[in-house]
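Local shape tokens:
==================
===
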Amino acid sequence: MENRDGFDDRLRQARTRQGLDPKPRTGGEGGLPTGPWGIGFRAGVEVVSALVVGAALGFGLDRWLGTFPWLFLVFFFVGGAAGVLNLYRLFKPRPEAGP
């Protein structure tokens, strides 16, 4: 039977609006990676990289200023806080872009 009234098209659009059928993604959108391994690796990289950058910055400043270990400790905790903030941003629900 011919699709006279476009019911299938309207049903597909309604399911997409309600979030039942995901919108087709085009490449390069920079969203969450797919699958649990991809999300886990990205979360791990976010935390570890923030800690490493904070610790390296603190260690470098300590060597330059001769205050070891105080700035190292301060920037290590600042890096940890930045890592947690990155995780929050990673998993925070995003509003869908409207048409």
